[in-house]
Amino acid sequence: MTSYTLRNHTTADSPHVVEMLNAKHASPRAVVDGAGNIRLIRYVPFSSRKVVIEDGQNNIVGYAYVADKESNFVLETGGGVHPDHWNAGVGTMLVRWAQEQAFQLSTNAPKDVKCVLQVNLFETDDESIRLFEDAGFSKVREWAHYDIQLEREYPISDAVKIRPFDLDNDDDWDLVGPVQDAAFMDHWGAYSLPPVENPEPEQASDDNNEDEPVIDSSYSNAQGFCFIAFIDDEVAGGILCNAKLVEFPNTGRVGSVFTNPKFRRKGVGKNLMLTAFNAFYQNGMRRVILDTDSQSFTDSSKFYTSLGMKIYRREFLYEKEIRAGEEIRRMSK
Description:
alpha+beta; Aminopeptidase; 2 domains; twelve-stranded mixed sheet; two-stranded antiparallel ribbon; about 20% helix; globular
């Protein structure tokens, strides 16, 4: 029987982890970016806790992370196991580690708030689905992945004024931030944290940031593919897009599109999407993808299909309660 060892991930492990995660998959599920960090299909914060599992020959055969998604009360895990080591206990070790980390992090969550650990799994990942269901995780949401093949540029309505979003300009972020927050407050999982009583004052830090990772931003929101919409000089919405993807070449991705609730049903979202499509087309990208909540309270699926987008795969969100408490997320209409 093969013996396995779990240890903390180091930067030197990254190429081996990526090779392991991509083993026997038709398209990449991970890459090493220009700064030596692992990039997965889903964004993973660089501050995440990460481990690897080695076999008896010191080959990396498993990898997992745990990330704080929302103030330590919504945590996320992910990773993978080499196909040659499925059903050998490697996945079970990683899930057990992830739950232990989630329990630790949940102690920092707001008092009396329910804490959960989440994982996103493609509908074709039968082995992973079985692993997490056996560990007590339940499916709570379904996401649909849409794409469109671009064959032309689209006309944009003059009723909505759209300009590029300067990602390096704090003023643009200040303009868009409140609108983005308001737009997503009626989505599944949105929340408002209760006020903190007698918050402790922040302590001065002597951290010289030597341990902070170098960041390659090329897989993040891309300059020239993000836009802000205005109606009567008021921010009506925005769109954030990626122009470099882990999984697909010559493909752009809409990361998020949002409309000021005050200006819904006025063509803001449509014109932002068409502006992004045109930017991708003008830069030689002929395919655009995005993902959205299949059961969205705002009927986002109907919106994307109205633009000619079609579903090409589905993804399931599973979660497990880590700490009992008050559910402060929006879970229904």
